[in-house]
Amino acid sequence: MMEENNLARLGGSLPVPSVQELAKGSLENVSSRYLRDDQQLPIIIKSDDNIPIINMESLVFGDEFEFKKLDFACREWGFFQLINHGVSDSVIDRVKKDTQDFFNLPLEDKKKLKQMDGDLDGYGQAFVVSEDQKLDWADMFFLTTNPPYLRKQHIFSHLPQPFRETVELYAAELKILALKIIDFLAKTLNMDEEYIREMFGEGTQAMRMNYYPPCPQPDKVIGLTSHSDAVALTILLQLNQMEGLQIKKDGVWIPISPLPHAFIINIGDILEVNKYDVTVSFPFKKNLNYQIVTNGAYRSIEHRAVVNSKKERLSIATFYSTKFDRQIGPAPSIISAKNPAKFRSIEAADYVRGYFARKLDKKSYLDVMRIENSENPAS
Ligand SMILES: O=C(O)CCC(=O)C(=O)O
Ligand SMILES: [Fe+2]
């Protein structure tokens, strides 16, 4: 077992006010710290073209057509809705209710679980690195859930019951689901399933619970700044009927309407594979590189959350990634004098630390990982 301290200090944020509390006051004019002119604010396109819907039961039965749909979804959209995913309604209902109850606790109670200096886990915000940076119109509760030795005990063991038990149940079910999805992706790419299982089997899992209060000037703020997820896979659950997730496709923001009982799944940066190189990737076996390079092009897509003036919105993003002590970088076997490495190879822990030490900025973290840039991702 590795030392918790060293591994788990993934980087924190500067303290910010609780937006939920701000939104309770009378807000004639929202504070300028939240007003954005740096975002392409909500251009709502009602489009028939929307993210593909994948039926997990068909994948389990080996339906070739469904695998083709999955492959298309990951190449063209980087996002899909997953139905018949096997996670029980009772667990989902529990996590929805208990998360809502958690955010409804008095501020004093939530503050007992606030982020400690330099930590990501806890109640607060992420990616706030300067006092004059624009802020998102949201509060966040972040929990590292797996492997258990990475949990922050000063947060995890102080979660109120039944929230704690619910989080454990939900985390366990979503780990199983993430591994199944990764298995399916390995199949669509003809990758060695054993190898993938070794890489992801005891992977890192974390939850980001997002609370977006209503805002009197919803089109002047942003709930969650445009970003891509620096993980392998994200499983998103929307907790109430309010919509807000938007994804960027061909330069246009498309709103997503979650289907009842579906999860929204998206490919993270670590699974992004582009045409010429395995971008932020792992040491795949040689024969696999070839397959990925030629068949790949799974996309990690920019997305964001917008807010509305009527009602709060809640979501839980459950992130799944490789083992914590893995090296992340271009596959050594594809590196040669002719094809030099374009991306750094660093430990997953440093990669994550570097991601959280910056403010969110579209997909720019991939640029930091590029060797020609001098900024050190872990500093
Ligand atoms: O709230 C949402 O719909 C998006 C959340 C998200 O993208 C995240 O937490 O990374
Ligand atoms: Fe995200």
UniProtKB/TrEMBL annotation:
<keyword id="KW-0479">Metal-binding</keyword>
<dbReference type="GO" id="GO:0002238">
    <property type="term" value="P:response to molecule of fungal origin"/>
</dbReference>
<dbReference type="InterPro" id="IPR026992">
    <property type="entry name" value="DIOX_N"/>
</dbReference>
<dbReference type="Pfam" id="PF14226">
    <property type="entry name" value="DIOX_N"/>
</dbReference>
<dbReference type="GO" id="GO:0009805">
    <property type="term" value="P:coumarin biosynthetic process"/>
</dbReference>
<dbReference type="Pfam" id="PF03171">
    <property type="entry name" value="2OG-FeII_Oxy"/>
</dbReference>
<dbReference type="InterPro" id="IPR044861">
    <property type="entry name" value="IPNS-like_FE2OG_OXY"/>
</dbReference>
<keyword id="KW-0408">Iron</keyword>
<dbReference type="InterPro" id="IPR005123">
    <property type="entry name" value="Oxoglu/Fe-dep_dioxygenase_dom"/>
</dbReference>
<keyword id="KW-0847">Vitamin C</keyword>
<keyword id="KW-0560">Oxidoreductase</keyword>
<feature type="domain" description="Fe2OG dioxygenase">
    <location>
        <begin position="203"/>
        <end position="322"/>
    </location>
</feature>
<protein>
    <submittedName>
        <fullName>Protein SRG1</fullName>
    </submittedName>
</protein>
<comment type="similarity">
    <text>Belongs to the iron/ascorbate-dependent oxidoreductase family.</text>
</comment>
<dbReference type="GO" id="GO:0016706">
    <property type="term" value="F:2-oxoglutarate-dependent dioxygenase activity"/>
</dbReference>
<dbReference type="InterPro" id="IPR050295">
    <property type="entry name" value="Plant_2OG-oxidoreductases"/>
</dbReference>
<dbReference type="InterPro" id="IPR027443">
    <property type="entry name" value="IPNS-like_sf"/>
</dbReference>
<dbReference type="GO" id="GO:0031418">
    <property type="term" value="F:L-ascorbic acid binding"/>
</dbReference>
<dbReference type="GO" id="GO:0046872">
    <property type="term" value="F:metal ion binding"/>
</dbReference>
